[in-house]
Design brief:
Length: 229
């Protein structure tokens, strides 16, 4: 499935590379169990999520999307919501009422969404929507050619790069607000394969690249398909 859950150490280092501000819309278009988004808010979580006059206030908006598959069903999105339950355990225990429980559940369901179409997240694209995108999108997988053919019919994707990662990169760039920031784990082929030349030109035309960091060899081999939970 081209699915690898990002080691927590990688997530933590990526989350040191941006400044989180109230009012931000933060997205992971391939969220898995939600660690990118949840670790992003963790350092200031007590201020970002709090109750005021009986109302649950969120100072940032989280948008985590994952695709339904026969392999995983909705398991990962359930784990993402369960992780959020753990991260917000303090505010939950301090506000033990049916009304509070309902508001927390609404927040979970708003923050993490399961896409049940063939394209998953890629089916819909709202341009200029997010201030910050953090993600490790799927890479080349069996059948990605068929998925790309369907995606191209949406009219959103023009770069025709290699694998699903090319579609996700185009989705990410178009989804960012002007001045927004994206931190993305990508395979090295994005930087060198001839099939990705048009995608690289598009990135250089639309974005300011602040840094490219090579991860150590075998960073992911010890964690294939293993949720960080």
């Amino acid at each position: 499935m081209g699915q690898f859950f990002t080691p927590l150490k990688v997530v933590e280092q990526m989350n040191r590379m941006f400044e989180l501000k109230p009012g931000m819309d933060i997205c992971d278009p391939a969220c898995g169990v939600g660690k990118f988004l949840l670790e992003a808010v963790l350092p200031d979580i007590d201020n970002l999520f709090r109750y005021e006059n009986g109302e649950l206030k969120a100072a940032v908006n989280l948008f985590g999307f994952d695709k339904y598959s026969e392999d995983n069903s909705d398991r990962t999105i359930i784990l993402a919501k369960a992780n959020m339950l753990i991260y917000l355990s303090k505010i939950i225990t301090e506000n033990p009422s049916p009304s509070s429980t309902k508001k927390i559940a609404e927040l979970f369901n708003k923050s993490f969404t399961l896409k049940k179409s063939n394209l998953g997240t890629l089916e819909e694209l709202e341009e200029n929507k997010y201030d910050l995108i953090l993600t490790n999108p799927p890479y080349v997988v069996n059948g990605s050619g068929d998925i790309k053919a369907i995606a191209n019919r949406t009219g959103y994707y023009k770069c025709n790069g290699l694998g699903l990662e090319a579609l996700f990169l185009e989705w990410i760039i178009k989804s960012l607000k002007e001045g927004g920031t994206a931190l993305i784990v990508i395979p090295d082929g994005i930087l060198s394969n001839m099939a990705n030349r048009k995608l690289r030109e598009y990135i250089l035309d639309r974005c300011c690249i602040e840094g490219i960091i090579s991860l150590p060899i075998n960073t992911f081999l010890e964690h294939p398909r293993k949720p960080i939970f």
